[in-house]
Specification:
The structure is a single chain. This protein has 11 helices and 10 strands. By secondary structure, it is α/β, with parallel strands linked by helices. It has one domain: 3-Layer(aba) Sandwich (Rossmann fold). The strands form 2 sheets. An 8-stranded mixed beta sheet has the order 1-2-4-3-7-8-9-10, sandwiched between helices. A hairpin with a 2-residue loop joins strand 5 and strand 6. Helix 8 packs parallel to helix 9.
Length: 304
C-alpha cells in the first residue's frame, strides 16, 4: 500500500484546486486561468518579497507545480515547499538578494506530457516511445496526450514571461532569470536552460527524475537525456546548475544516474563555481524534504 501511494503521489504530484494560496511572508498575487495559445489555461501565483517596490528591479525564479510551493492547507498531501518563508528568512539574513517567485500551476492529467523533455523523447525509438506512452496506473494512462514540453516552454518564454516583466518590476536578462522544479519538474527545468540559454541563466533541479518514467526498466531514457545534454548544455561562463537528491523512496534510485549526469556536466567545463550536485541522506521524494533543503539552491542562485 505504501509503495502504491508513493507512485500515485508521483503521478498526480499536484491536484488542481480552486483554492488560492495564502502566505505569511511577503505577498502573493494569483492570476487564475492564465490564458495561452500554447497550453491549457492554468493558475499562476506570483510571490513578492517583503518591501517589494517598483523603485527597484528584482530577479525572477520560475517554479513548476506552483500550487505546491506556498500553502500546505491547499495541497493534496498537506505539504508545501514553504518557499515564501524560506526565501524571506534568507533575505532577512542578507544571504540572498530579494527576488520574485512565479509559481506555475501544473495540470495533473497533462503534467507528464508537459514536463517530459521533448527532444530527448523524440530521439527514442518508436518502440521505446510506445512503451512510455502505454504506461498505466490503476488502469489510467500516465500520458493523456503526446509529449508537449516544447509548447509548455514556449508558453513560459513567449507568453508568461513577457506578462510578468510588464506587470512587475523585474530584471529581465538571463543573468537574473532562473527556473526550478523537482522530480519531472527537475527535468523540465534543465531542459528549459538548454533550449533557452538566452532566457534562463540557470536551473535548480531537486530530486531530478532521470528514469523519466515509473515502470520502464530500459536505460534508454536517461541515456537520451545525457546525450541531449552533451549536445545542448549551455556555457558555464554565464549559467548555473544545481542538482540534488535524497536517499529514500523514489530518490533512492537516483544516485548512480545523477553521478552520470555530473560527469556530462563537468565535461562541459562546469566547476564548483557554476555547478552543485548534492546528496541529502534521509531525505525522501516529498515537498517536506525539498523544503528542508530549498535554502541551498536559493543561496546558490541568488546569493549576495
Amino acid at each position: 500500500m505504501k509503495k502504491t501511494m508513493l507512485i500515485l503521489a508521483f503521478l498526480i504530484h499536484v491536484v488542481a484546486t480552486a483554492q488560492i494560496a495564502q502566505v505569511t511572508n511577503g505577498a502573493i498575487k494569483t492570476f487564475e486561468n492564465f490564458p495561452s495559445d500554447k497550453v491549457a489555461p492554468r493558475n499562476v501565483a506570483v510571490w513578492l518579497p517583503d518591501g517589494y517596490s517598483t523603485a527597484e528591479k528584482y530577479p525572477v525564479l520560475y517554479m513548476h507545480d506552483g500550487q505546491m510551493l506556498f500553502d500546505p492547507s491547499i495541497t493534496w498531501n498537506n505539504q508545501a515547499w514553504e518557499a515564501d518563508a524560506i526565501a524571506s528568512k534568507l533575505m532577512a539574513q542578507n544571504k540572498v538578494q530579494k527576488f520574485i517567485i512565479v509559481g506555475i500551476y501544473s495540470i495533473p492529467e497533462n503534467r507528464m506530457a508537459e514536463y517530459f523533455p521533448e527532444k530527448p523523447f523524440k530521439s527514442l525509438s518508436e518502440t521505446v516511445q510506445g512503451e512510455v506512452y502505454s504506461q498505466q496506473m490503476k488502469g489510467k494512462n500516465l500520458f493523456t496526450m503526446k509529449v508537449a514540453s516544447d509548447n509548455y516552454l514556449a508558453f513560459i518564454v513567449r507568453e508568461l514571461k513577457p506578462f510578468i516583466d510588464a506587470t512587475f518590476s523585474t530584471k529581465t536578462d538571463a543573468a537574473n532569470t532562473y527556473m526550478a522544479g523537482s522530480s519531472m519538474g527537475g527535468l523540465i527545468s534543465l531542459y528549459a536552460v538548454c533550449e533557452y540559454p538566452e532566457v534562463f541563466g540557470g536551473a535548480a533541479c531537486l530530486s531530478t527524475h532521470w528514469p523519466g518514467t515509473i515502470t520502464a526498466s530500459s536505460d534508454a531514457l536517461p541515456k537520451a537525456f545525457f546525450d541531449y545534454m552533451k549536445a545542448k548544455l549551455p556555457s558555464p561562463k554565464n549559467h548555473k546548475l544545481y542538482f540534488d537528491y535524497g536517499t529514500e523512496t523514489l530518490d533512492a534510485g537516483y544516485a548512480q544516474l545523477q553521478k552520470q549526469a555530473d560527469v556530462v556536466i563537468k565535461a562541459k567545463g562546469y566547476t564548483s563555481n557554476e555547478f552543485i550536485s548534492k546528496e541529502f541522506p534521509g531525505h525522501d521524494h516529498s515537498e517536506k524534504s525539498w523544503s528542508m533543503r530549498l535554502h541551498e539552491p536559493l543561496t546558490f542562485l541568488f546569493g549576495e
